[in-house]
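Structure in, sequence out. Go:
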C-alpha cells in the first residue's frame, strides 16, 4: 500500500513538474529560462512558468502574436521570437511583459505593425532587434509610426539591419531620445536627408555600412554633423569618385576622428578609381580643378589670339587707306556733294509737306 502511495505521489510530483513546462519546450527553473526552439510551434505556447526571465521561442512557425500571447509573465526580461513567420504585431502585444528589456523579432516577415506594437507599460524596453524583420520596404511607414507611438523613451539599442530599406522617413527616430546605438547596415539607403536623425542626442554609434550611398551631399553631411558625439561606420558603400564628391572627401578627412572605418573607405566607381582610398580622393586625384583651370587658360588664350587678329586686320585697313589717300580724298568730296544735294532735296520736301499739315491743324482748331 505504501509503495503504491509513494508511486502516486511521485507521479503527481512529476506530473506537476511536467505541467509547469509547456509541451515541446525546455524549462530550467534555476536558470529562469524557457526554450522552445525549432519545434514547429504555430503559436506562443500557454503555461509558461512565472519564474521565466529568458524566453526563447525561435525557429518555429508562429505567424501571429497579440496581447493574449504573453500573460502572467511579469518576470520576463529577455524575449526572442526570431526566425518565425510573424507578419503582424498588434498594439500592446508586449504590454504585459512589465520587466521586458530585450526584444528580438529578427528574421520575421512583419508587414503590418500597429502603432503601439512595442509599448511596454513600464517603458522598460532597452533593446529592440528588427534585423531582417520587415517583409519589405513598404513596412517602414508602419515602423516609423510605431517607433513614435510606442513610448520607447528608454530604448538604448535598435537593430534595423538587413531590411532592404530604401529611405528613412523624416523624424523616424525622434522619440527615441535615449538611443545609444543604431544599426542600419545592409539596407539600400541612397541618401541621408534633413531630420532623419533628429532627436538622437545621445547616439554613440551609427552603422551605415553595406548601403547604397554613392556619395553624401551637403544635406547629408549637415545631418551627420548634427550628431557630433556619434561614431560612424560608412564602409562597403558604392562610392562614386568623380567630380562633385570633393565636399564629402574633405568632410571625411576632417571627420576622421569619429569615423571608425575611415581608413578602409574606398571608391567603387569609376572602375579606374576602384579601391582608391576615399581619404586620398582630393581635388588633385580627380583633376576637377585642373580641368577648370585648363578651360580658363584656353579661354584666355583665345581672347588674346582674337585681339591680335583684329589688330592686324585694322593695320592692313589703315595701310590700304594710306595707299589710296588721293582717290579717297576725291571720293570724299564727291560724297559730300552728293550728300548736300540729298539734304537740300529733303529739306525742301519737308517744307512743302509741313504747309498743308499746319493748315489742317488750324482748321480742326476752328471747329
Ligand atoms: C517573479 O519572480 C519573483 C521572484 O523571483 C516571484 O516571487 C514572482 O512570483 C514571480 N512572478 C510570477 C508572475 O510568477
Ligand atoms: C519597471 O521596470 C523596472 C526595471 O526597469 C523593474 O525593476 C520594476 O519592477 C518595473 N515595475 C513594474 C511595476 O513592473
Ligand atoms: C539581431 O539579430 C540578428 C539575427 O538574429 C543578429 O545577427 C544580431 O546580432 C542581433 N543584433 C544585436 C544587436 O544583438
Ligand atoms: C511589399 O509587399 C506588398 C505585399 O506583397 C506589396 O503590395 C508592395 O508593393 C511591396 N512593396 C515593395 C516596396 O516591394
Ligand atoms: C543582407 O541582407 C540580405 C537580406 O535582406 C541577406 O540575404 C544578406 O545575406 C545580407 N548580407 C550580409 C552581408 O549580411
Ligand atoms: C534642409 O535644411 C536646409 C537648412 O538647414 C534647407 O536649406 C534645405 O532646403 C533643407 N532641405 C530639404 C530637402 O528640406
Ligand atoms: C580591391 O581590393 C580587394 C581586397 O582588398 C581585392 O580583392 C580586389 O581585387 C581589388 N580590386 C581591384 C580592382 O583592385
Ligand atoms: C587631410 O587633412 C590633413 C589635416 O588634417 C591634411 O594635412 C591633409 O592634406 C588632408 N588630406 C587631403 C587629401 O585633403
Amino acid at each position: 500500500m505504501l509503495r503504491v502511495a509513494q508511486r502516486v505521489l511521485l507521479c503527481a510530483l512529476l506530473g506537476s513538474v511536467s505541467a509547469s513546462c509547456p509541451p515541446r519546450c525546455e524549462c530550467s527553473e534555476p536558470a529562469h529560462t524557457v526554450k522552445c526552439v525549432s519545434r514547429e510551434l504555430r503559436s506562443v505556447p500557454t503555461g509558461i512558468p512565472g519564474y521565466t526571465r529568458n524566453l526563447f521561442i525561435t525557429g518555429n512557425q508562429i505567424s501571429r502574436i497579440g496581447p493574449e500571447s504573453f500573460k502572467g509573465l511579469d518576470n520576463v526580461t529577455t524575449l526572442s521570437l526570431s526566425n518565425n513567420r510573424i507578419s503582424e504585431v498588434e498594439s500592446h502585444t508586449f504590454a504585459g511583459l512589465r520587466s521586458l528589456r530585450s526584444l528580438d523579432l529578427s528574421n520575421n516577415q512583419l508587414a503590418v505593425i500597429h502603432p503601439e506594437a512595442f509599448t511596454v507599460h513600464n517603458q522598460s524596453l532597452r533593446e529592440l532587434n528588427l534585423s531582417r524583420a520587415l517583409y519589405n520596404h513598404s513596412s517602414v511607414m508602419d515602423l516609423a509610426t510605431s517607433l513614435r507611438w510606442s513610448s520607447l523613451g528608454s530604448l538604448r539599442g535598435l537593430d534595423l539591419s538587413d531590411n532592404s530599406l530604401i529611405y528613412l522617413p523624416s523624424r523616424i527616430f525622434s522619440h527615441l531620445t535615449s538611443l545609444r546605438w543604431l544599426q542600419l547596415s545592409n539596407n539600400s539607403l541612397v541618401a541621408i536627408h534633413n531630420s532623419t536623425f533628429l532627436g538622437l542626442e545621445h547616439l554613440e554609434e551609427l552603422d551605415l555600412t553595406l548601403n547604397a550611398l554613392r556619395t553624401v551631399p551637403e544635406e547629408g553631411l549637415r545631418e551627420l554633423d548634427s550628431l557630433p558625439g556619434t561614431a560612424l561606420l560608412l564602409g562597403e558603400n558604392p562610392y562614386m569618385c568623380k567630380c562633385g564628391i570633393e565636399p564629402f572627401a574633405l568632410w571625411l578627412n576632417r571627420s576622421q576622428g569619429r569615423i571608425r572605418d575611415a581608413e578602409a573607405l574606398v571608391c567603387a566607381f569609376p572602375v579606374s578609381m576602384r579601391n582608391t582610398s576615399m581619404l586620398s580622393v582630393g581635388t588633385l586625384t580627380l583633376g576637377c580643378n585642373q580641368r577648370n583651370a585648363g578651360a580658363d587658360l584656353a579661354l584666355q588664350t583665345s581672347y588674346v589670339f582674337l585681339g591680335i587678329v583684329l589688330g592686324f586686320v585694322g593695320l592692313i585697313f589703315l595701310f590700304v587707306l594710306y595707299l589710296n589717300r588721293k582717290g579717297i580724298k576725291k571720293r570724299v568730296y564727291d560724297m559730300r556733294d552728293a550728300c548736300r544735294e540729298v539734304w537740300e532735296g529733303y529739306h525742301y520736301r519737308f517744307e512743302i509737306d509741313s504747309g498743308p499739315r499746319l493748315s489742317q491743324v488750324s482748321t480742326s482748331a476752328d471747329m
